[in-house]
Specification:
The two termini are 42 Å apart. α7 crosses α8, α8 packs across α9 and α11 crosses α13. It is built from 13 helices and no strands. The protein folds into 3 domains: 111 residues, Four Helix Bundle (Hemerythrin (Met), subunit A), CATH 1.20.120.1810; 53 residues; 84 residues, Arc Repressor Mutant, subunit A (Orthogonal Bundle), CATH 1.10.10.10. By secondary structure, the protein is mainly alpha-helical. The longest helix has 22 residues.
């Protein structure tokens, strides 16, 4: 659903746009001098002049995204964030116009805002997904116009996938996403229904009783393992902890250097220690289910 600003906000946006369009354009040498004064001397006056001269670029870029139903003022504000980022990163020593450099930052900032706010559901995070989101409508209209037909079809989707370097599945998923609207789980089922969609959803998570039993079982197994480890030598305990109980597995070669033995010797010690652990654990186990938690 498109967002409609109140009259006061619309007036403020219009005034800002008019001010931006009336700002004087800069010659290349002058904008480079402003950028130099800002980066070398921290001259805020030079920064303000540089920024104010290119707010028209922000307005122009923001207008390209107005059909996504988001407030124009917010689009402009996000574009200004991108413009500030461009000013802070611009290398005045390169033979490049600031407007060319800033355009990328402004567009990127606005696109990120659209992706975050167009839907309550995250639409895409990778570069390919962003490209698909912002180009699907254009490419679909182009293909449908060339073929003089309604609907995209698999050939059209294949063409889009090839051009944007994404999977056919990604195109179908994004097409469905863009054609739908967000729905509330509190919406009632049917016009006169009392139940909402949320009440019809099943919860596959374990109930509190299962959680408590699982915690108790895990604690019991931990105590079994602690007892079994206590029957190993210090060197064997070190090998088991480093090879099987740490966040990252240490290689046989690294352990060999640490213990002053060859990696083959570490492998032999590891196998012997694992055998001891299995023998110790068997004393606690009555059935094979004692070793595993329920799914």
């Amino acid at each position: 659903m498109a967002h409609i600003d109140d009259p006061q906000t619309q007036k403020a946006n219009l005034e800002y746009i008019q001010t931006s369009m009336n700002a004087p354009l800069l010659e290349k040498d002058h904008e480079l001098e402003l950028a130099r004064r800002w980066h070398e001397n921290g001259d805020e006056k030079a920064l303000h002049e540089l920024i104010n001269s290119y707010t028209r670029l922000v307005v122009s870029m923001a207008s390209r995204f107005r059909n996504y139903g988001l407030p124009m003022g917010d689009l402009i504000q996000e574009g200004n964030v991108g413009l500030m980022q461009a000013a802070s990163r611009f290398d005045y020593k390169r033979d490049l116009r600031f407007s060319t450099y800033a355009s990328w930052w402004i567009r990127s900032a606005i696109q990120d805002y659209v992706l975050r706010n167009w839907s309550i559901v995250r639409t895409g995070t990778t570069a390919a997904q962003k490209s698909l989101f912002f180009n699907l409508r254009r490419l679909r209209a182009k293909i449908e116009g060339e073929n003089e037909r309604e609907g995209l079809g698999n050939e059209g989707r294949k063409q889009i996938a090839k051009e944007l370097k994404v999977r056919m599945k990604d195109v179908r998923d994004m097409e469905a996403r863009l054609s739908g609207a967000d729905s509330s789980l509190n919406a009632t089922i049917g016009e006169d229904g009392d139940d909402d969609w949320q009440s019809m959803l099943s919860d596959d998570r374990p109930n509190p009783e299962d959680i408590v039993l699982g915690m108790k079982d895990a604690q019991t197994r931990s105590e079994w393992l602690k007892s079994a480890l206590g029957e190993l030598s210090n060197r064997e305990q070190t090998i088991i902890r480093e090879r099987h109980l740490g966040y990252e597995t240490v290689t046989l070669e690294e352990l060999g250097k640490e213990l002053g033995v060859s990696k083959e010797r570490v492998r032999q010690l590891e196998q012997r220690a694992m055998g001891k652990l299995k023998s110790s654990m068997k004393k606690f186990i009555t059935t094979k289910d004692d070793l595993f938690t329920a799914d």
